[in-house]
UniProtKB/TrEMBL annotation:
Region described as Disordered: spans on this chain: 546-626, 818-947
NCBIfam families in UniProt: choice_anch_M, P_ac_wall_RPT
Phylogenetic lineage: Bacteria, Bacillati, Actinomycetota, Actinomycetes, Mycobacteriales
Biased composition (Acidic residues): 595-616
This protein's UniProt keywords: Membrane, Transmembrane, Transmembrane helix
Record has Membrane as a keyword: yes
InterPro entries cross-referenced by the UniProt entry: Surface-anchored_actinobac
Protein name per Swiss-Prot or TrEMBL: ABC transporter-associated repeat protein
Species of provenance: Corynebacterium pseudopelargi
Compositional bias of kind Low complexity: 582-594, 617-626, 840-890
Highest taxon listed in the record's lineage: Bacteria
Residue intervals passing through the bilayer: 952-974
Bias (Pro residues) ranges: 891-902
Length: 981
């Protein structure tokens, strides 16, 4: 008998069985070609949101009854019965997302956990910080806050300020599809925005949600229960703000969200009820002591009011009266305004249709793609900056109690407005023309215009769509209903500007073209001369002889203007040829590590800087290539500390594209602080170096600028000494800066600026409790390049101090193209007044990259320059200080020192020369699968990061699945070979 003949079929059957088993393993476990994220989602019970943790200090029983103010049981069930009371925590009280059924919803976030609104109630009770009440607020004698009540009024407030990083009494915000909580951030909403509406409101008083910083000239109103019940939220973001309630008690709110998609459909959520319990337990239907761990008043608001020199208002609140007549400006005021903004350009445009042609060059030989903007008036191309006249004859009067424009009128304090024209009218019109774009090459976002109008003090503007008698406000600084303009279709898009008072309005906006593989942007910067007084002064300065009659227009003679619903179907441009979905296989390769295992699409806000070669001496050793830095112009950023593969690393968490967050290593990026960040008044800092003003990145997000914060959410605090459960954030050294340049980080506290870090005081630091994320204001007194080394420090379990460093470059202001890179000198030179924002028709130039030397490391010498008095200026505009060269690396790592408590430099003190810190040992490269904001479970559940075990299981399942698939392939090939044998 031939036994070998029997063994061959048996062997083949065994191999076939083994191959089938391996293939089944590969199919049922994540492996190559399978959707890893979906399978992991199934392991989390199909949840739409990433896992998170939160804590409630008080949970009301299911049968909780409502008690009256005297403590008597009313027999009625409390509206918060069976719910968690949320306070002393980070809360997104209104969070627009999709629920587990895939429907648009308004949920909430308790610390890091997304929850349903019917599971919790917001609790705003008595609390104090350092013995001073923070749960109630005295309305100051400030017209910008008149919407809160008369000066001296006391309102309950959940403050924007994060007092001592303890979330007192409740740190509440709003958000939409935040990537910290979402497996996938949607990209199909028009203008990347959704709308949140307060559709119902019941309570004993009024509610207002707003933000207001000391350097602002007005508050940003977000929601007002009386007159402002809609706000716009950027998809992929969140922020914190002040919530005020005029009286204690139980407030019932109903929220509804909506967003428009690119196909024109509008997606709306069902109304969702939310409760706020404001005041003492006896004020909100609870017995005293029910709310556990709640604080006390400390120094009460009544005492604070007395110290402010205010008293309790009596009588009825003063009625807000809106002006119906244009203000008469003093001639000296107009002359100073025009002189400040004037520069040589073409004569101002008094009529015609101003059209900006939007183009995209595509990839040409040896050139990068770019967006092109060409402006013409009635077919005549303009080479210089565009100055547009908006005369008194273009005034209109907002209709009384108009449901769409009354908020603008209230913010402006006037119903009288100036309007740019419509095509063919007597006043210049404005439009963007996208006819030359190939829609087939664009993603579904096509083109977005992000306006940025700099107004005269007290001025309010809006940009939107209109037909002469009606106007839809889309982008505005009047309140938070502002969104970018979405341009869909290859056609002309007519827009209108609306301004509230005479003056010079300068535009600093951007046009983003969303090419499938290379999204890019360009800037446009028209100037608007509003009012005949201003027009005549500019004409005189420009040598134009004609003058306009200087009248004082009023609503009596002006046509009436009505509002228009921005969601009206007739305002939506339908794409002529709907573009196909981006082909992910053609996406450019990248070395960045995104949050999820997907090909990273390049963000339109991040652009690589072209490297500029500089002459060097002839040498046999070639110069090493300087890697291109990533330019970041806008979006949410975190200077983060994380633990990756057991190593503590500092890096930048870049969420400028919320759908594709990217981790950037130390020294590989620079943050642009644009000209629009300039503030003439920086007196809140009380520092002589900032007497002329400052470039400011605010702690409240401005979507036109970067929004940097600090975070230790991804750090492993199990490795920290239990007696020191914090990390310190500080400025280790300034590697280079413009002559006399100074950087200050601040936070707002009690409506005042509190300096926390100062480049002139290296001893200062910010203590961050475990798993904290916070934003600060960044102040720069000079334009130029700042290379700053930030440091995180902590005490390990052995009692030793460890540090991690993050080198960050800030490009402040627009540097001229011909500006040379020079070494900083230690010789005393005169300080120079910084250049305030100036309108320009040119694209801001890319700064030159600092050159590094292959020579031995050298220690950087401390700065010895002494501040000098500013010299009289002989030219109209001072020149921008020259960009310094980066300091050389230093010899040895610094000795570890214990974390320092946060120190604040004394007001008016002379800045000490910054000390150069030693160069730390370079951090190892970040692995491709390193998490951005994930770490081990914290000891305190209310300060929890996202669960790190998910990443481990992803790796294990991917490895098993890949091995199984490979084994099945090997068995199959071997069996085929055996058959042929």
């Amino acid at each position: 008998m031939n036994f070998s003949a029997l063994r061959t079929p048996m062997r083949l059957r065994m191999l076939a069985t083994l191959g089938v088993l391996a293939l089944l393993v590969a199919l049922f476990l994540p492996g190559p070609g399978l959707n890893l994220i979906n399978l992991v989602d199934e392991s989390t019970n199909g949840s739409t949101h990433k896992p998170g943790t939160g804590e409630a200090f008080t949970v009301l029983p299911e049968d909780q009854h409502f008690f009256d103010a005297q403590g008597s049981d009313t027999g009625q069930l409390h509206p918060c019965a069976g719910r968690d009371l949320l306070y002393h925590s980070h809360i997104d009280a209104g969070y627009v997302t999709r629920n587990d059924q895939g429907n648009l919803d308004v949920m909430a976030v308790n610390n890091t956990k997304v929850i349903a609104q019917d599971s919790a109630c917001m609790r705003l009770g008595p609390d104090n910080h350092n013995g001073v009440e923070v749960s109630r607020f005295v309305v100051p004698n400030d017209p910008a806050l008149s919407f809160l009540g008369a000066p001296g009024s006391i309102v309950w407030r959940a403050p924007f300020e994060n007092y001592g990083n303890r979330w007192l009494p409740i740190w509440a915000g709003l958000g939409a599809f935040d990537p910290h909580h979402e497996w996938k951030v949607p990209t199909d909403f028009v203008a990347n925005s959704v709308q949140l509406d307060l559709v119902e409101f019941e309570g004993p008083g009024d509610m207002n949600i707003y933000n207001y910083l000391p350097q602002w000239d007005r508050a940003t109103r977000i929601i007002g229960s009386q007159d402002l019940r809609s706000t716009s939220l950027g998809v992929g973001g969140h922020g914190h703000m002040n919530w005020t309630f005029s009286q204690p008690g139980v407030y019932k709110l109903a929220w509804q969200a909506q967003g428009r998609h690119y196909d024109g459909s509008v997606e709306r959520s069902a109304p969702v009820t939310q409760y706020w319990l404001v005041g003492e337990d006896s004020h909100v239907g609870l017995l005293p002591g029910t709310t556990q761990g709640i604080g006390n008043y400390g120094k009460r608001a009544e005492t604070i009011r007395q110290e402010m020199g205010l008293s309790e208002p009596t009588g009825e609140p003063a009625k807000v009266v809106l002006s119906e007549q244009a203000p008469k400006l003093e001639s000296e005021e107009v002359k100073a305004m025009v002189e400040r903004e004037y520069f040589e350009t073409d004569p101002p445009i008094g009529s015609g249709d101003v059209v900006v042609d939007v183009g995209y060059t595509g990839k040409e030989l040896l050139k990068d793609p770019e967006v092109t903007l060409k402006t013409h008036v009635d077919g005549k191309t303009l080479e210089n900056a565009v100055v547009i006249e908006v005369p008194d004859s273009a005034t209109k009067c907002i209709a009384p109690n108009d449901p769409y424009l009354s908020n603008f009128a209230r913010a402006a304090g006037s119903r009288l407005v100036w309007m740019t024209g419509t095509p063919g009218g007597p006043t210049p019109s404005y439009a963007f023309d996208t006819s030359d774009l190939d829609l087939a090459q664009l993603s579904e976002q096509q083109v977005i215009v992000e306006p940025g109008v700099n107004t005269p003090r007290g001025g309010v503007y809006a940009m939107g769509a209109g037909d002469g008698d009606r106007f839809a406000s889309i982008a505005t600084n009047a309140n938070s209903t502002s969104t970018p303009l979405q341009l869909l279709g290859a056609q002309r898009h007519n827009v209108q500007y609306m301004m509230s008072r005479p003056g010079v309005y300068t535009e600093d906006g951007s046009v983003r073209v969303f090419h499938k593989t290379d999204p890019r942007y360009e800037f446009y910067s028209p100037i608007f001369l509003v009012g005949n007084q201003v027009i005549n002064q500019w004409r005189q300065r420009a040598g134009v002889k004609e003058r306009l009659p200087e009248t004082q227009p009023s609503c009596e003679a002006a046509p009436q203007l009505s509002g228009w619903d921005p969601y009206a179907p007739e305002l939506v441009d339908a794409p002529e040829d709907p573009p196909t979905q981006p082909d992910e296989t053609t996406a450019p390769e990248t070395s960045e590590a995104p949050v999820v295992e997907e090909t990273e699409q390049p963000s339109e806000e991040v652009e690589e800087v072209e490297e500029v070669e500089e002459p060097t001496e002839t040498t046999s050793t070639p110069e090493p290539e300087v890697p291109a830095l990533h330019r970041i112009r806008s979006g949410h950023l975190d200077m983060a500390l994380g633990t990756i593969d057991g190593n503590a690393l500092a890096y930048l968490k870049d969420e400028s594209d919320p759908a594709n967050p990217v981790r950037r290593e130390s020294g590989t990026f620079f943050i642009v602080v644009p000209q629009r960040a300039w503030h003439d008044d920086a007196s809140a800092l009380e520092l002589d170096d900032f007497a002329d003003g400052a470039f400011v990145l605010p702690e409240v997000q401005d979507r036109r600028m970067p929004w940097p914060g600090i975070s230790n959410e991804a750090f492993d605090f199990q490795a920290v000494h239990p007696d020191y459960p914090t990390t310190d954030f500080s400025i280790a050294s300034v590697l280079s800066a413009p002559q006399g340049g100074r950087l200050v980080l601040s936070a707002s506290e009690d409506m005042k600026v509190k300096r926390q870090l100062d480049s002139a005081d290296p001893s200062a630091s910010i203590a961050l409790p475990a798993f904290t994320h916070a934003h600060k204001a960044f102040w720069f007194n000079k334009p130029g390049t700042y290379e700053v080394r930030f440091a995180y420090s902590w005490v390990n379990k052995q009692g030793q101090t460890e540090q991690a460093f993050l080198d960050t470059t800030f490009e402040v202001g627009n540097l001229p193209k011909e500006e040379e890179v020079v070494e900083e000198t230690t010789e005393p030179t005169a300080t120079q007044k910084p250049v305030p924002p100036q309108p320009t028709s040119e694209k801001p130039q890319t700064p030159k990259q600092p050159q590094t030397s292959p020579a031995q490391p050298q220690a950087t010498q401390p700065q010895t320059t002494k501040p000098q008095a500013a010299q009289p200026q002989t030219t109209k505009q001072p020149q921008t200080p020259k960009q310094p060269q980066a300091a050389q690396p230093q010899a040895a790592p610094p000795k570890a020192v214990p974390p320092r408590p946060a120190a604040v430099p004394k007001a008016g003190s002379t800045p000490a020369p910054p000390k150069a810190a030693a160069m730390p040992r370079p951090a190892p490269p970040l692995p491709a699968n390193a998490p951005l904001a994930q770490g081990p479970k914290p000891p305190l559940s209310r300060q929890a990061a996202q669960e790190g075990s998910l990443e481990v299981w992803r790796g294990v399942l991917l490895g098993v699945g890949g091995f199984s698939l490979l084994l099945a392939l090997v068995v199959y090939l071997y069996s085929r070979r055996s058959k042929t044998d």
